[in-house]
Each structure stands twice: as C-alpha cells, then as structure tokens.
Amino acid sequence: MNAKRKFPHGILRINSYLEQLKPAEKRVAQYILANYEEVIHLSITKLARAADVSEATVVKFCQHIGYSGYQELKIMLAQVEQSGEQERIYGEIEADDEIEEIIDKIFQIYDHSFQNTKKLLKQSNIKEAIDLLINARRVFFFGFGASGIVAEDSELKFKRINYSAEALIDNHRQKTMASLLSAEDLVVAISDSGRTRELMESLNIARNAGAKIMAITSNMGSPVTEIADTILLTSSKETPFRGSALASRMAQLAVIDVLFLGAAADKYDQTLEALDKTRVVMQDSRIK
C-alpha cells in the first residue's frame, strides 16, 4: 500500500475507472471512449456541451482518473492516436449468430482482452509483484466464482515449483487463514470487479494481521485497489453473457502465467528440478 504505483494512460485508464465514476462523470467517459479522435481537438466547453455536463464535471472527471486537468488528458489521448493503440470494438454475440460467427467473436474478445492486459502489465509494477511472490513465506490466492477457478489454477502452478501455495475460495476458510497470517505471507486477491464484499472482509483481516496483498482486477479505484500493496490491472470487455466471465477469466489467467514464469525464472535450476520431480510422479497416472 505504500509502494509507488504505476497507472495506465489514456483509454485504458478511463476503462479501468469506468465503474467507479458518478453518473455525470460516466457520461464524459463514455463520450470520450466513443469519440476520442474528435475529443483531442475539442475545447473543454465543447466537450461539456457534447456530454451534457458542466465544465466543472469534465475537470472533476479528469482529476478522478488521476490527471491534473483536461489538457493533460488530451495529451494522453493524442499519444494513443499517434501510437495506433486505440481500442477496437467488436460485435456482441447475438441470438441469431451462426456458430462460425460466435467462434470469430469470442476469439476477438479474447484477443482484445489479452492485448490490452499486456499493455497494462507493461505499465504496472510487475517486477515488484514478482518480488513479493519470491520473498513470501506462503502465498494464498483468494477469489470467488470464476476468479476462484483462477485461484485454484494458481495454486496448482505454484505448488508444482515447490511454493507453499493455497487457493481459498470459501469465505470462512479465507477469514480463518487470514487471521493467522504474518508480514512474511502474501495474499493474491483475484477479483474482476474489485468490489466483492466477502473478499474485502477477508482482506481486511489479512491486512490487520500484517500480510502483504496483491490485487488482480480490472477496476482501478475499487475497494480491492485501496487495500493492496501492488495492483495488476486486467482489461476485459465482456459479452452480454456477463455471468460466464469469459474475457475477465482469460485475462486473469494470463496475469497469473506471467507471475508464475517470472517467479520460476528467478530460481531457474530449482524450478526445473521441481518440475521434473512432479512430472515423474504423475507419469504413472497416465494410461499407456
């Protein structure tokens, strides 16, 4: 929580704060996302009129997402245009789509999520996050629902390279273990929304016990980012089938893979030895 943080810029930053904005500020954000190429040439007065808000609301919006004012936001948006990194919008899955269309759309959604998450990781404190993992006595992955599945995958990966790792996806187990943690332990909180009440209850207990906290989320400014020592942002444009958490789950898995490989590379020889041992014992489980 005291570490210097890096934040995404331009469109990715707006998206990461979108769910935390007040209604008027969200109208500004939505107009910018839909018309960013136009916005970089607009005065604050014209943007306010287009978004049907006051000029003061535009300024508050800019400050809410971490810029000093409208001029700095325009500079960042202009850099996005020059680098060709504007967000591509893909078609949503419709009821009458053929299976070939669904295949195309879902992989476009995944590609979009992966590419933007990649940019966010390069702008994050990823090395600091890997150091937290390497130096932790024990690592606990907290998550619920689809994020819980990612937590369980994380436990399997890190156990295979001899980390003391455990996934906790039940609130009572999370709270019990959180109360027994120390400053040598790390909790990796996985939550796309960053607003799950049960998760925050467990994290507050872990924080009071002195544990370090790493957050993997797509929502900057959410409660989980306020309590975390290190934040790793994902980008996930979901389909109308939001309950399936398609893009968010894939983005979270990608971040975990980066952490896993970063930690593994730090102790390369020990990692290979551990992987060889686990591979040998699992070979007998295969049907020949």
Automatic annotation (TrEMBL):
* Domain spans labelled HTH rpiR-type: 8-84
Biological processes annotated in GO: carbohydrate derivative metabolic process
What are the protein's GO molecular function terms?
Answer: carbohydrate derivative binding; DNA binding; DNA-binding transcription factor activity
Signal sequence region: none
Gene3D superfamilies xrefs: Glucose-6-phosphate isomerase like protein, domain 1, Winged helix-like DNA-binding domain superfamily/Winged helix DNA-binding domain
Q: Where is each SIS domain found?
A: 129-269
Q: Which PROSITE patterns match?
A: HTH_RPIR (PS51071), SIS (PS51464)
Superkingdom: Bacteria
- Name the InterPro entries on file: Homeodomain-like_sf, HTH_RpiR, RpiR-like, RpiR-like_SIS, SIS_dom, SIS_dom_sf, WH-like_DNA-bd_sf
PANTHER family in the record, alphabetically? GLUCOKINASE, HTH-TYPE TRANSCRIPTIONAL REGULATOR HEXR-RELATED
Q: What is this protein called?
A: RpiR family transcriptional regulator
Organism name: Halanaerobium saccharolyticum
Taxonomy of origin reads: Bacteria, Bacillati, Bacillota, Clostridia, Halanaerobiales
